[in-house]
Amino acid sequence: MSNSTVPRSRAEAQTTETASRAADATGERPGKRRLSGKLSLRLRFRRDRTLILMTLPAVALVLVFNYIPILGNVVAFQEYDPYASDNGFVAMLESPWVGVEQFERIFADSAFWDAVRNTLVLFGLQLVLFFPIPIVLALLINSVLRPRIRAVSQAILYLPHFFSWVLVITVFQQIFGGAGIIAQTLRQHGYEGFDLMTDPGIFKFLLTSEGVWKDAGWGIIVFLAALASVSPDLYEAAAMDGAGRRRRMWHVTLPALRPVIALLLVLRVGDALTVGFEQILLQRDAVGPGAAEVLDTYVWWNGVRNQDFSYAAAAGLIKGLVSVALVLAANKVAHFMGEQGVYKK
Questions:
Q1: Res 269: pLDDT
Q2: Model's pTM, two decimal places?
Q3: Max alpha carbon distance in the chain (Å)?
């Protein structure tokens, strides 16, 4: 046996041993070759069984609290009577079917269209006035050089996110209400006071201001996380090319934020018909339903207060279908602009 044959045999043995180990790791038997580049379902399950077991509790929660209740939308096509049986499922089976009668009632109700109009106007205000503010604040905080000042500023802006809507509205009442600090100060100096909390004309702007104060800090964290992923080499290269701070922000920072902005914008458009149930319900009586009634409070008022469950279920079903259509349309626009959106093409 020559000297050249021995190394070649050892190399072949090592190659065979490595292939055997790789086959054992993927669950394949020695000598069995895959005809395609994809693993079978059984092999993928063996490989990812630990991750699958970890996600099973979350999947169970989503099924129980999100998907199974969808079956209750069947009452939108019934004259649902919750007192027909002690069991809610049996009550659905025993309730008479009325077809699309509930939807005809909704489309003929002027209060429903008033709620739709208020919802869309409030969404437009929040999209124009609220959505850009976290982006601007994140850019400002990111431009601060001292880390301690950045941390303190971020903590101050994020703190109201932990406040309940009851506390937020109470703070605004103490400042802008008829007995608030500003109104009392004006009266003490001989001027006429005001009460912004009961003015239907500015109610939607008031809601937007409350939302900005409470939740702008949450959006800042998302955009700061996106900014943290930007390589400092890009800023250094732009600075070496003579770009100032504004041009670096325009050509480096904003392109890095564009995928996140597109994703959040798609999600916000899909959530257009949900504009803050608890916040509006707490202030509905102060300005009246003409200015404060939105789809969520409309559904709650008819379904819970008036116990017209089938009517409220039909209104909620319409809202859900429109929201899904808005998500799909906004995602198509994101794809057209070259962004991924919620899901890829």
A1: 83
A2: 0.74
A3: 114
